[in-house]
Known about the structure:
Blueprint: H1 2-9, E1 20-25, E2 29-35, H2 41-45, H3 50-62, E3 69-74
Amino acid sequence: MKALIENIVVPLVDYPEAIHVTEKEEENKIVYHLEVHADDVGKVIGKNGRIAKAVRTVVYAAGMKSNKRIYLDIM
């Protein structure tokens, strides 16, 4: 799942080397924390959060195979 998130975000940003995805697994959920360069935060979130919502939708759909809820936090 980390690779999927990185593959989606890399074309959007100016500093792809600053992308870090961490995973925190709990009993009934998996939380992914996406960190990008400060200049790229707006590009990843998009106007009115549209890009962030689209990325989350793809990640949630890919995570449907597991019985855990998937969350994506953009930091």
